[in-house]
Amino acid sequence: MALWITFNSVALFHHFDSRPFILSNLIFSTQAAYAAPLILLAQTRQADRDKAHGDRIDRRHTGLEQAMKTETEKLVTLLQSNTEITQQDKQLTEEVAKLTKQIHALLLQRSTAA
User: Fold this and answer.
1) What is the C-alpha separation between 11 and 19, in angstroms, rounded?
2) 3: number of CA atoms within 13 Å, CB side?
3) What is the mean predicted confidence (pLDDT) over 18-46?
4) Is there a contact between 34 and 41 (Cβ–Cβ < 8 Å)?
5) Which residues have CB under 8 Å from 9's CB, separation 6+?
6) Using an 8 Å Cβ cutoff, are 8 and 21 in contact?
7) Which of 34-38, 75-79, 100-104, 109-113 is least confident?
8) In 3-state terms, what secondary structure has residue 34?
9) Residue 71 and residue 57: Cα distance in Å, rounded?
10) What's the sign of the alpha-carbon dihedral 16, 20, 26, 28?
11) What is the DSSP letter of 48?
12) Residue 9 has pLDDT above 90, yes or no
């Protein structure tokens, strides 16, 4: 652009685009006229790609959240089962302890009676 202005300002014999440089203005206007729709098209395509990418991320996060919820529910179920088994084990241990005392008492009675 600077070369265009310099050449047309300094030219001694022929100014093919004299001030206010209407030909260069026409060239730039033409370039803008065909470039603007291309730029808008590229922006629209990029927006579509961004939206599709965002949708994929949302679906992935939803899937991960669902998987985490399912796994958490399984863990809660396992913990409840573990708690029940621990309580049953405690009860059985107490019963075994009672029975052991009863057997010991019966054996002591038989040994003292004999």
Assistant:
1) 12
2) 0
3) 86
4) no
5) 19
6) yes
7) 109-113
8) helix
9) 21
10) positive
11) H
12) no
Residue 58 Ramachandran class (φ > 0 left, ψ -120 to 50 alpha, else beta)? alpha
- Region 64-87: mean pLDDT is 97
Report residue 66 as tokens: 């669902």
Residue 15 C-alpha from the chain's centroid: 62
Sign for the CA dihedral angle at 23, 28, 29, 33 comes to positive
Looking up tokens 């059985």, which residue turns up? 92
Those residues whose C-beta lies under 8 Å from the C-beta of residue 95, and which sit 6 or more positions away, are none
The amino acid at 66: Q
Tens of pLDDT along 97-114?
999 999 999 999 888 876
pLDDT > 80? residue 7: no
Rounded (5°) CA angle 82-62-73: 10
